[in-house]
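Good day; I would like, with your permission, to put a structural problem before you. What I wish to show you is a protein chain and, alongside it, a tokenised description of its three-dimensional fold. Thank you for your consideration; the sequence and its tokens are set out here:
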Amino acid sequence: MLRPASFAIGQWVEPGAEARAIHGPLDGSQIALAGGAPLDVQAMLDWARSTGGPALRAMTFHERAKIIKSLAVYLSERKEELYALNHLTGATRRDGAVDIEGGIGTMMVIASKGRREMPDGHVYVDGGIEGLSRSGQFVGQHIAVPLQGVALHINAFNFPVWGMLEKLAPTLLAGVPAIVKPATQTCFLTEACFRMIIESGLLPEGAVQLVVGGVGDMLDRLGPQDVVSFTGSADTALHLRANRNLMAQSVRFHSEQDSLNATILGPDVQADSPAFAQFIKEAAREITVKAGQKCTAIRRIIVPEVMVGAVGEALCDKLAAVTVGDPSRDDVQMGALVSAAQKADVLAKLTALDAETRNLTGDPQAGDFVGAGPAGAFLRPTLLQCDDPDAAVAVHEMEAFGPVSTIMPYRDLSHASALANRGGGSLVASLVTDDPMVARDVTLNSAAWHGRLYITGANNAKDATGHGAPLPHMVHGGPGRAGGGEELGGIRGVMHYMQRTAIQGSPDVVAAITGQWSPGASEVKGPDHPFQRTFNEITIGETLHTAPRKVTLDDIEHFAHFTGDTFYAHMDEAAAKANPFFPGRVAHGYLLLSFAAGLFVQPDPGPVLANTGLNGLSFQKPVSPEDSITVRLTAKRKTRRTDEYGEVAWNVTLTNQDGDQVAEYELLTMVSYSR
């Protein structure tokens, strides 16, 4: 008998006298006792805010990213312990891979993006400097800093591992402690993964806590620095959103809800084409993976009128071949729903859909399952057909959260988009087509109703990730019925747990806050050439001003013939003068960059290992023959990359003999920590 425990204020809390019995989906027998122990929720919140939050905020984004990566590696090394419990949720090993390895992979991606896209500091800089005065001594900058509260994660039953890890990764990267509340039916798998996180010893005290069972009156105790992130049904989300305290305290509420996702077969796809085969494969997979218990599962299959028969026949054949039964067996392709109650709910929804649909395949009363008896929460993959989707209501509003999907015909592309949009907002809609203009038409007509559009055809089928596979690189969420929120989305997901603030002041003040130099801030003269100084020795604002260099007509002509760039503005005086941008023949922009490098580079071996990039290049004023250029090189920001070297970003500006700026860019160099 499993006894998943809560983890509160640094202690494990075993199930109490009022613990709830959890009955397994395979035969209905009791497999666990969970919850029932009184938790001091105020003390949990206080511990997170006063202990976990300060400890996380004391770290830089990169330090937190390294911990998240280490956690992912730690969990990956122990994933077989999670797979050993996976079948008790009704899931096959293939289903478990989406949940377990998908969650671990999500942590790896978020950690990687944190190292690449966020600063090695405590303040996230959002966008560029805004000049607010003519003198340049009063500027604005948007920043983001961690909220000083706690994130309450309320997760659904269908992904007990991924659901926890995909929220934890961006929350911890932001520097905010979390309290995880898994769905009770599958909490034993969440608890097993959470226990590994605690045993790793990688996180500071108070960074994470776990509530198995109810959260009591925790929602009534949250404040304006706290966040609620919810995944589950629209009804539950509505109930939570309506909490008076959440509204009164303006508590941030992010909701990702189950939705009536759709897939559309393009009018260009023929029944004998590779794209058609891909469409059938994708639809069948979305019906059967996790026994259809996915918030991204395809619920409505929208196809051209002339293709309804072909699609129905192909899908029926595909689904009839699916073996359903004990998910621990290698010969089983689809397991059980998560519980008898969930099966009863799906059967009730099927009954409600009877008036608008007819059954093509899938007997709800079937009882012959591989390695399993009739007492389990098993259902055959079920395919319905709605012949009049315009008059139908329930198929666009009611979701049977199981292995159920409905085929419906469309007349033209605008009709197809309209049907997809009638779901009232989805997490994802997909389109199978080989015609880019079909993709454009559907996108323009329906993108506003979907968080993600997944478009595949014969050319990219092998590379495509899958209709129902949310990736941590991109936003996972959607409008309307889907919750109106966002999850994942790389750094966008991290921003859910941070406050965006506009700071205004002098360039020196902004530089002190952000750790990044900007034009107008004070310059620092180093003791020697900056390229002879180690990463640790270089200071933000350290500046080198070079001697001037004259640009001659011979220089321009030599560069033109050497490179092959004989554009008329560099070679033909009359043609150049006819161009409103130029006073006559002008120097190549890349010639100026080459001269700039020659002016500021120190040629001797030293800590600078390599130039690795050039960002934001812009030219402000042309340079004519006999003009001179001078370069200012300023250390803008520093980012540790490995144990041996870090990245220094330099602001580079080129000015002419009159002091007018002619070009600007950001130069990236890798600099050693030692000489």
User: Anything to note?
Assistant: The domain at 261-470 is CATH 3.40.309.10 (Aldehyde Dehydrogenase; Chain A, domain 2). The mean pLDDT is 94.
